[in-house]
Amino acid sequence: MAWFTDDTLDFMADLADNNERAWFNEHKGRYEKDVKDASLAFIADFAPRLATVSEHFRAIAKTQGGSLFRIYRDTRFAKDKTPYKTHIGLHFKHALAKDVHAPGFYLHLQPAESFFGAGIWHPDGPGVKAIRASIDTHQDAWRGVKKKLSKAGLELAGESLKRTPKGYDKEHPLGEDLKRKDFIVTCSIAEDMVLSDGLLDHFTTLCEGAAPLQEFLCASMEIPY
Question: Which of 65, 60, 124 is nearest to 92 (CA)?
Fold first, then answer.
């Protein structure tokens, strides 16, 4: 039995067209059943799978402090004042993520735009320095990680600096990777997979494929993998 259905994506599409509190409150029952409850069920079922990938990442089936991102947007400092996110975000964080900027696994669900993500997005200053230093020191190991990711169908993504960071040769053989501000991989997920009972297996396989990156990042930041 699938966790997410046409009703799930239909609600998110309708929310994108009616992103206002009155509409959401009127249709909150749909959100509770087709989005929140479905997401929490998936998270709970994924927990034992995640433990086989790494015992240091967490799948927590809770709305507060758990793996399901809030549907409500923080609009305090945003020009866009629409109150709700138009996607579902499931984030499986490292156990130490409360204390450090740490790697995680991510599932993004949105009509025609669903994808898998893994790694660390916008690490803090000490974190990014540690990762770059590790890439520089362990160049062959990093190349091996990239080969494994490519074999798994995962591509490095995210933002990069325009110039090689200070302290590294401009002609460094891994200069493009040293420029990275994010150390993440992504992979799109077809809508028929999102709506199938094979999503759990597929997502687990993607997490396993991203494991070499997560292990490298954790070692770089001196946290357990």
Answer: 60
